[in-house]
């Protein structure tokens, strides 16, 4: 299953490591405000592909 995530708050930061352990789920998109650029940081921290 492909998964897109809207937001990059604390819940998402805790949720991503759990999702990474499930091979049937692939995070394909993460959205955050451009001003914060948090999406990039969360993506890199959780070794997600470049989104």
Number of domains: 1
**Principal-axis shape:** globular
Largest sheet strand order: 1-2
Q: Termini distance?
A: 16 Å
H/I helix tally: 2
How many DSSP-defined strands?
2
Runs in which pLDDT lies below 50 for 5 or more consecutive residues are none
Summarize the structure.
With 51 residues, the protein is of the alpha+beta class.
Task: Report on the architecture of this protein.
This protein has 51 residues and is an alpha+beta fold. The protein has one domain (2-45). Helices cover 37% and strands 22% of the residues. The chain has two helices and two strands. A two-stranded parallel sheet has the order 1-2. Helix 1 links the parallel strand 1 and strand 2 (26-31). It is globular.
Task: Describe how the helices and strands are arranged.
Elements: E1 2-6, H1 10-20, E2 26-31, H2 38-45
Can you give keywords for this protein?
globular; 2 helices; 2 strands; alpha+beta
């Amino acid at each position: 299953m492909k998964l897109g995530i809207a937001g990059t708050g604390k819940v998402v930061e805790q949720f991503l490591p759990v999702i990474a352990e499930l091979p049937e789920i692939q995070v394909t998109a993460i959205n955050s405000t451009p001003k914060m650029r948090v999406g990039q940081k969360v993506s890199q921290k959780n070794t997600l592909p470049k989104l």
